[in-house]
């Protein structure tokens, strides 16, 4: 696989297939949340069963992202992307035809696993096949695919359920993936470059087992704990996740010391630029998903707005987030280098203004638009900085870690900020003001982490024999720091 340099024409057909694959995964998450009430009316699931239908996708997706990334390296990124897409399409058909809640929940779990196999290959493919300005453009398009999927999921979900196409109720929100998936499969077989010289090797099954136990122990309580009132089992699971994940880290070190191939190369996390970027992204991501949850409650229960209004008002946020990708390459390099700090400062200011102004109309949409722009600027430049600091051979490790980091921070954001909002009581305006202040404080912490990452990147470039010593590497760092894609699955959880 030969990367595309600045002078070569980027493989647009390949990029389009990768972007549409990411788009499908994002659409499906948001679209199902909108369809949940219709599912409840038709299949009459219990509250827990309906939660599993909505969140089961997130569970298997988060658990298997790292494994999917490693399988891409070991068995070929093209092969795993197409296999994941085929499984995703088949699972969508099973969801649309599900006669009972159990079958629907099982198909959703398979959908999440398929998405985890497919999505890591998108970022890995961009990092492997593109360099310099070509990579910057590709990452900018990924930002647009992520934001566009969120908008399409919210809008299409409401339209399809309301239209009751062919009298099928909620089922078309899944069935629409079938023709789209088949067409994308046909295109992928034709345009995706064949895998050449992929790593092969054995998958660390022990590492898979430990990670597949540790991540659910952390995620399941965060998904279900708030609604269940945080019973004892949620805290037991959270506490148990710490030693299990510690055992996973120890095993990865031992496998690497023996000369084997660990599931995650921990050397990626040892890089200060990557570590600070992951922390900054996690903090900012948690505020976004917490905002999605609390804003919907505030608008509908506090202000009496409709569900349609609470969904459409977020279009300005997601659209502005997508603008960040094309915008960054047009900024001077010196300005783009400070995009994480500037972006998260804009995000914090938007949160404060939203909470203090109590806006509920056009002003709210404008403020949310600024928030989305700030988030996009921060994410794009942060992820670009991280990918520039990691060589292509470690692309699967970075892709898996980034995506898992995003999922964990998303469910943590809903759990922490959602619990804060619901626990405050009193007038909804007061509770929303307090929680938006908490969002702003967390965004400022993300800003501080982003600044630390910038300082770490400067030290790396100045170090003899480091990034700054290689002209090709300097060009890659400069271009990548100007634009990149968020690995976040920007979508409404609830």
Automatic annotation (TrEMBL):
Highest taxon in the source lineage: Bacteria
Major subcellular location class: membrane
Membrane topology, record value: Multi-pass membrane protein
Keyword Metal-binding recorded: no
Residue span(s) of domain Major facilitator superfamily (MFS) profile: 14-461
Keyword Transmembrane: yes
Residues spanning the membrane: 12-36, 48-69, 81-106, 112-130, 142-161, 173-193, 205-224, 230-249, 273-297, 309-328, 335-356, 362-380, 401-424, 430-457
Xref: PROSITE patterns: MFS (PS50850)
CDD domains per the UniProt record, alphabetical: MFS_MMR_MDR_like
Protein's name according to its UniProt entry: MFS transporter
Lineage start: Bacteria, Bacillati, Actinomycetota, Actinomycetes, Streptosporangiales
């Amino acid at each position: 696989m030969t990367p595309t340099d600045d002078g070569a024409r980027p493989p647009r057909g390949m990029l389009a297939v990768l972007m549409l694959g990411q788009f499908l995964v994002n659409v499906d998450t948001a679209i199902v949340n909108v369809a949940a009430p219709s599912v409840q009316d038709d299949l009459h699931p219990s509250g827990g069963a309906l939660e599993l239908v909505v969140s089961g996708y997130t569970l298997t997706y988060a658990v298997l992202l790292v494994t999917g990334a490693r399988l891409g390296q070991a068995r070929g990124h093209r092969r795993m992307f197409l296999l994941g897409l085929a499984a995703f399409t088949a699972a969508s058909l099973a969801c649309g035809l599900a006669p009972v809640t159990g079958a629907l929940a099982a198909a959703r779990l398979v959908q999440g696993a398929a998405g985890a196999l497919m999505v890591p290959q998108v970022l890995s493919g961009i990092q492997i096949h593109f360099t310099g300005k070509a990579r910057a453009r590709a990452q900018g398009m990924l930002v647009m695919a992520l934001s566009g999927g969120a908008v399409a999921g919210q809008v299409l979900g409401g339209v399809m359920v309301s239209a009751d196409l062919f009298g099928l109720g909620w089922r078309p929100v899944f069935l629409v993936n079938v023709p789209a998936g088949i067409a994308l499969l046909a295109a992928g077989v034709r345009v995706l470059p064949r895998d050449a010289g992929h790593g092969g090797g054995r998958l660390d099954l022990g590492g898979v087992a430990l990670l597949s136990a540790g991540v659910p122990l952390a995620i399941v309580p965060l998904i279900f704990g708030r609604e269940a009132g945080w019973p004892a089992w949620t805290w037991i699971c959270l506490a148990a996740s710490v030693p299990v994940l510690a055992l996973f880290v120890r095993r990865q070190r031992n496998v690497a010391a023996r000369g084997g191939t660990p599931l995650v190369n921990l050397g990626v996390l040892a890089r200060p630029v990557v570590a600070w970027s992951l922390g900054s992204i996690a903090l900012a991501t948690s505020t976004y998903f917490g905002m999605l949850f609390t804003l919907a409650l505030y608008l509908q229960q506090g202000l009496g707005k409709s569900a349609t209004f609470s969904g459409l008002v977020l279009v300005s946020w997601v659209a502005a987030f997508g603008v960040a990708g094309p915008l960054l390459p047009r900024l001077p390099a010196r300005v783009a280098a400070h995009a994480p700090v500037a972006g998260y400062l804009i995000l914090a200011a938007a949160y404060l203004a939203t909470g203090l102004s109590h806006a509920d109309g056009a002003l709210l949409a404008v403020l949310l638009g600024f928030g989305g722009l700030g988030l996009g600027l921060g994410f794009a430049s942060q992820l670009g900085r991280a990918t520039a600091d990691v060589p292509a051979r470690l692309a699967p490790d970075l892709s898996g870690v980034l995506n898992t980091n995003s999922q964990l921070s998303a469910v943590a954001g809903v759990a922490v900020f959602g619990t804060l909002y619901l626990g405050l009581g009193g007038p909804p305006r007061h509770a929303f003001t307090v929680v938006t202040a908490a969002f702003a404080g967390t965004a400022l912490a993300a800003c501080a982490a982003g600044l630390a990452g910038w300082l770490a990147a400067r030290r790396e470039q100045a170090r003899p024999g480091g990034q700054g010593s290689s002209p090709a590497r300097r060009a890659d760092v400069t271009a990548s720091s100007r634009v990149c894609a968020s690995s976040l699955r920007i979508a409404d959880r609830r």
